[in-house]
Specification:
Distance between the termini: 42 Å
Mean pLDDT: 91
Largest sheet: 6 strands, parallel
Strand order of the largest sheet: 3-2-4-5-7-6
Number of helices: 25
Helix content: 25-40%
Structural class: alpha/beta
Radius of gyration: 25 Å
Shape: globular
Oligomer: single chain
Length: 583
Amino acid sequence: MTPTTSALREAETVRLVDHLAGELAAAGVTHMFGVGGANIEDLFDAVHRGGAIRGVVAKHEFSAVTMADGYARTTRRLGVVAATSGGGAMNLVPGLAEAYASRVPVLALVGQPPTGQEGQGAFQDSSGKAGSFDATEVFAPVSRFCARVDDPDLLTELLPRAVAAAQADPRGPAVLLLPKDVQQARIQVPVRAPAPTPGGSATASVARLDTTAVRAVSDALRGAGRVLVIAGEDVAAADARGDLAELARCVGAWVAVTPDAKDVFDNRDPRFAGVAGVMGHANVEDCLRRADLCLLVGTRLPLLARGGLDRALATTEVVALGPEPPFVAGTALGGNLRDALRAVTRRLPSRPRPCPPHAGPLPTPMPGRLFPAREQTVPHAQAVAAVEAALPQDAHVFVDAGNAGASAIHLLPAPRHGRFVVAVGMGGMGYTFGAGIGAALATGRRTYVLAGDGAFFMHGMEVHTAVEYGAPVTFVIFNNNAHAMCALREEFLQGGVRSDDLFARSDLAAGVAAAFPSLQATGAADAAHLRTALLRGNASGGPAFVAVACDPREIPPFLPFQSFTEATDSKEGSDERGVVHVG
């Protein structure tokens, strides 16, 4: 982002915020998400005046971060969020924590009180002076780079460093704290020579691959009879789907995916083994037990992705490709994932090997409900099938936490030409509302948000943001009138002694329709009605909202619950049955 000497003609003086907005636009940023306030209003003003970046105002700073996150995941560009000081700044933390844990490049621009008021009792002071807390100490643990811009002239140095840190491996958030007077200051900056419009995210320099490790991985794959690939989200972040498919073709591999990476391999391909881990398919474990080698591609294989697989992994050779070492023992080839895939594949026979027979991602049989339904409801499997029937193949899908999310991950095939995003870094409820809007505004594609009513009550008022900006988002709310996953944990782990997580009945579609008369809002009575409403939403240019009644006591395809019910049915202890604990 810093111009070269040959590109400089002369220097001019501009407002710092105008320079900042111009630099972001030059880097390919098209949207800035945030919530306004006195100590960030100058940046919003600069974005408005500049015209190259669209400013999008969210209802809550958490959702503003997730909008930037969804923007980054679907465009592979830097997501940008802006917020004011005090409570606004603090509301950014959980969203930045998700981006940090999931390796999503986000730049947070955070307003601060004027420097002359620091330590003087300023409203929302977080300078660390005179007994105030230090905002840099709050943001540093959830960022790859964090700095306070106390001297306006330092921005030309700090901004490129922040952007580079966000986009280098491991990717993640960068934070710049901007006092109000610093934003308003005039700084001398070089005038750029005309340059081509950027075509996407900046390319960070990458380390050379270890040739010895490349050879070791290639030799292991050549010598293995049966290979199971488990692919992760970094395949999408590195734009390496084609490279993954080519390697799988060369070694005749089965391909499984982690819960947050359903879109990195064609779910309808005969090689597709299913989802690994606690929301996944039994076929993956079966393939792993039959495999001579397990190849991890773009995943460190965290607990959600390896739950139920640890015993099989312990007796199988593991090889990993990716910028960070895996959580399981094995041979690792670090560096740029796309380069690693290509380097390994070049050393493999070009003639494709057949994929051994396997069962495929058959749905896991579940015991159903713990008790009879309280009212007429639609089973999750039927609701997900209706979504599958209506889902455009170029749509993006954002899946929230909870029982509905587990069902969607297990049952819903990823669209062939869109993202299938699950925020498993922090697993925060309500992530999808902002993220889906950010993705839809960035790409213009129909985007589906699949969430439960608990997630809706947390951040569902971002529906208003979708209405205001005409975002093509279809919100599908699985309303079981409960924090159902918590309620089921109470049944399994605490004797069912509480009803705290069971709610009084709510009619979300009617409420949303009354609040937003221009929004298509439907309460679906059955799966057919749900499909019809979704197809109607696809045909519209803007947002749509559909709520479907579900049963809070329906047991989702979630391995911890399944293992508890099996242990109960067989009257065996949890140690004997291998019960999986998550959370």
